[in-house]
Q: What sequence folds into this?
């Protein structure tokens, strides 16, 4: 994720980088919000997968 924000030619990182050159704050904020939403969705998906696949681990700890 960090490399996409620094050295990307396309994508959200490049959009934010280009917008920062021209002080387009609305585009920068939209890009940051999109990255946050993508991260939130990925986190929720991984938590569900983990809860389903590692059900035995909760029982072993308790």
A:
């Amino acid at each position: 994720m960090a490399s996409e924000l620094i050295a990307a030619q396309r994508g959200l990182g490049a959009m934010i980088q280009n917008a920062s050159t021209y002080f387009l704050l609305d585009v920068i904020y939209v890009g940051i919000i999109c990255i946050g939403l993508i991260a939130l969705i990925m986190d929720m998906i991984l938590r569900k997968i983990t809860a389903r696949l590692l059900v035995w681990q909760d029982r072993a700890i308790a």
Observations:
- The first helix runs from residue 2 to 7.
- The chain has a mean pLDDT of 88.
- The radius of gyration is 17 Å.
